[in-house]
């Protein structure tokens, strides 16, 4: 397993994250356990801040959907980034954490009237409007609340990123955004400009996720700026902000070759400047919305090994005490991961095994065919790069309680998400009167 951030193998041969012994973390907090490397998370934020804000005067907006809790909100705020939220729930979390609402960008292809009202009442910095229906709805709600809302329009540039089908978002056949080609985008801009309660600041696109080719971004910038030139000829309006979304790919396993953030910033900025000059347009402020490339490598999940099933000549399954409930990415995207045995982190691999979860699904796998030292029940398995789209996608399938999360730094580990309990699982369950029995009977029947 490639070591990320503050990871190292300590004197006992155990994996260490943020100066904390992973085996001790597992025994102190239980498994499965999400461990966030605070220093790496912050360093990733800083790399973006330096590359986009300090070098090019741009704005970095962290995508909350990848990893977000009250404590994570504090980190993002302290590092000076903006925040991309896509739901009332994420917005509420940011508000409760005290995140400055002026730095919040509200996304989503079907925001409800209630969500939009919240965003307007709390004065979020920008609402990224996805479609003509939303434009109309927002205009009405802003009118009712007597506020003017800063908006950006999300467009579909027709650029295909080379990535998994389910995380592509820039192609024309997408549920997101106003299509440039068929005139919808221009129509949206005209309506936004004519609106009394909306202030149109710029344009947005997001071509996909886990993207390695920076050329895709330069191409998308060109398409957006060519369109901006057309809009300028038609309306006299030019975007002050160009939001290019997120998507920079990260290292999960051998074969992944991520590009440096600085290069990513420079490639886009160069395309942006050239195209703006060519079209005699002012250079808009460049906005980016990184998620995975900030949170992904900063997360590691610790599991305890249990049952091991060897089918000679076929496959050896090593089952752990979590799985698709805490990490559904293999099931969803055929995602690949690396892992090591945290209690024998320095040991050489001895065999090829596949890591299975404990859910009642054959598809509940974490890793196919990984080389590991010979695992035995009780070993602690660490899966790296689980910071993004793991906790935020976790679920209670099979009524498995969701794991706890700790923030590790300088030898300290602080609990930032408590482990769910069995009683948490019943929090929303109700028994209608006609099915109620004496509690006593119920307990007896369990015994
Ligand atoms: C998912 C998403 C992001 C973040 O993508 P990453 O690949 O995690 O960087 C940013 N912006 C929008 C609109 C998104 O949908």
From TrEMBL:
<dbReference type="InterPro" id="IPR000183">
    <property type="entry name" value="Orn/DAP/Arg_de-COase"/>
</dbReference>
<feature type="domain" description="Orn/DAP/Arg decarboxylase 2 C-terminal">
    <location>
        <begin position="35"/>
        <end position="387"/>
    </location>
</feature>
<dbReference type="InterPro" id="IPR002986">
    <property type="entry name" value="DAP_deCOOHase_LysA"/>
</dbReference>
<dbReference type="GO" id="GO:0008836">
    <property type="term" value="F:diaminopimelate decarboxylase activity"/>
</dbReference>
<keyword id="KW-0663">Pyridoxal phosphate</keyword>
<comment type="subunit">
    <text>Homodimer.</text>
</comment>
<dbReference type="InterPro" id="IPR022643">
    <property type="entry name" value="De-COase2_C"/>
</dbReference>
<feature type="binding site">
    <location>
        <position position="333"/>
    </location>
    <ligand>
        <name>substrate</name>
    </ligand>
</feature>
<comment type="function">
    <text>Specifically catalyzes the decarboxylation of meso-diaminopimelate (meso-DAP) to L-lysine.</text>
</comment>
<feature type="active site" description="Proton donor">
    <location>
        <position position="360"/>
    </location>
</feature>
<keyword id="KW-0028">Amino-acid biosynthesis</keyword>
<dbReference type="Pfam" id="PF00278">
    <property type="entry name" value="Orn_DAP_Arg_deC"/>
</dbReference>
<feature type="binding site">
    <location>
        <position position="361"/>
    </location>
    <ligand>
        <name>substrate</name>
    </ligand>
</feature>
<dbReference type="InterPro" id="IPR009006">
    <property type="entry name" value="Ala_racemase/Decarboxylase_C"/>
</dbReference>
<comment type="pathway">
    <text>Amino-acid biosynthesis; L-lysine biosynthesis via DAP pathway; L-lysine from DL-2,6-diaminopimelate: step 1/1.</text>
</comment>
<dbReference type="InterPro" id="IPR029066">
    <property type="entry name" value="PLP-binding_barrel"/>
</dbReference>
<feature type="binding site">
    <location>
        <position position="389"/>
    </location>
    <ligand>
        <name>substrate</name>
    </ligand>
</feature>
<protein>
    <recommendedName>
        <fullName>Diaminopimelate decarboxylase</fullName>
        <ecNumber>4.1.1.20</ecNumber>
    </recommendedName>
</protein>
<feature type="binding site">
    <location>
        <position position="292"/>
    </location>
    <ligand>
        <name>substrate</name>
    </ligand>
</feature>
<dbReference type="GO" id="GO:0009089">
    <property type="term" value="P:lysine biosynthetic process via diaminopimelate"/>
</dbReference>
<keyword id="KW-0456">Lyase</keyword>
<dbReference type="GO" id="GO:0030170">
    <property type="term" value="F:pyridoxal phosphate binding"/>
</dbReference>
<feature type="modified residue" description="N6-(pyridoxal phosphate)lysine">
    <location>
        <position position="65"/>
    </location>
</feature>
<feature type="domain" description="Orn/DAP/Arg decarboxylase 2 N-terminal">
    <location>
        <begin position="42"/>
        <end position="295"/>
    </location>
</feature>
<feature type="binding site">
    <location>
        <position position="247"/>
    </location>
    <ligand>
        <name>pyridoxal 5'-phosphate</name>
    </ligand>
</feature>
<dbReference type="InterPro" id="IPR022657">
    <property type="entry name" value="De-COase2_CS"/>
</dbReference>
<comment type="similarity">
    <text>Belongs to the Orn/Lys/Arg decarboxylase class-II family. LysA subfamily.</text>
</comment>
<dbReference type="Pfam" id="PF02784">
    <property type="entry name" value="Orn_Arg_deC_N"/>
</dbReference>
<feature type="binding site">
    <location>
        <position position="389"/>
    </location>
    <ligand>
        <name>pyridoxal 5'-phosphate</name>
    </ligand>
</feature>
<dbReference type="InterPro" id="IPR022644">
    <property type="entry name" value="De-COase2_N"/>
</dbReference>
<keyword id="KW-0457">Lysine biosynthesis</keyword>
<keyword id="KW-0210">Decarboxylase</keyword>
<feature type="binding site">
    <location>
        <begin position="289"/>
        <end position="292"/>
    </location>
    <ligand>
        <name>pyridoxal 5'-phosphate</name>
    </ligand>
</feature>
<feature type="binding site">
    <location>
        <position position="329"/>
    </location>
    <ligand>
        <name>substrate</name>
    </ligand>
</feature>
